[in-house]
Design brief:
The chain is mainly beta. 13% of the residues lie in helices and 56% in strands.
C-alpha cells in the first residue's frame, strides 16, 4: 500500500514538473506591418429573399475578383451587408453592418464593421453620401493567423472598389 502511494506521489510530481516546464516556455513574437491595396472589379450580387432591399434586416450578399496595383489577380472577396435601422422615424441615415472575407493565396483576412449612408449629402451633386468607417480586421487564417488591423473601402464607380488593408500579424522570432 505504501509503495502504491509512493508511486502515485512520484507520478504526480512528474506531471507537475513537466507542466511547469511547459508553462515556463518563453516565446518571442514580433509584429509585422503590411499594407495591401486591392481593387475589387465587378461583383456578383444577391439579395436576401423575402426582405425588401431597403427594409431593416435586408441583406446584400456579394463576391468580386481582387487585383493588385499591377493588374495581377490576387484573390476574391466575399461579403454581406445588412441594413440596420435603429431609428426608423429619422429617415436621414441608413446604417449597414458589413462583413468581408478576403481570400488571398489560400489564406483569409476577415473584417467587420459598419458604414452609414445619408439621404441628405453635404455636397448636392452626390445623390447619396457614403460615410465609411474603417472595418476592424477580426482575424485570419493561414499566413494571416492572428491578424488585426483595419480595412478602408472606397468606391471608385458602380462596380469598382479599392480596399486598403492595414494589416498587423504576429511573427515568431
Amino acid at each position: 500500500m505504501i509503495l502504491k502511494i509512493l508511486h502515485a506521489f512520484t507520478l504526480l510530481c512528474m506531471v507537475i514538473a513537466s507542466g511547469a516546464a511547459i508553462a515556463s516556455e518563453e516565446l518571442r513574437i514580433s509584429i509585422a506591418k503590411e499594407t495591401i491595396v486591392l481593387e475589387q472589379r465587378g461583383a456578383t450580387l444577391n439579395h436576401h429573399p423575402g426582405i425588401e432591399p431597403k427594409a431593416t434586416g435586408a441583406a446584400l450578399y456579394f463576391e468580386g475578383d481582387l487585383f493588385l496595383e499591377n493588374d495581377q489577380q490576387a484573390g476574391i472577396v466575399h461579403g454581406v451587408t445588412t441594413l440596420w435601422d435603429a431609428s426608423p422615424d429619422d429617415g436621414e441615415e441608413e446604417v449597414r453592418h458589413r462583413n468581408l472575407v478576403f481570400l488571398l493565396d489560400g489564406s483569409q483576412i476577415i473584417a467587420s464593421g459598419i458604414s452609414s449612408y445619408s439621404s441628405n449629402p453635404k455636397w448636392p451633386s452626390n445623390s447619396e453620401e457614403w460615410q465609411h468607417l474603417d472595418l476592424a480586421i477580426t482575424g485570419g487564417t493561414g499566413k494571416y493567423l492572428g491578424a488585426y488591423g483595419t480595412v478602408t473601402s472606397k468606391q471608385l464607380n458602380a462596380e469598382t472598389y479599392v480596399h486598403t488593408i492595414e494589416l498587423y500579424t504576429p511573427v515568431q522570432d
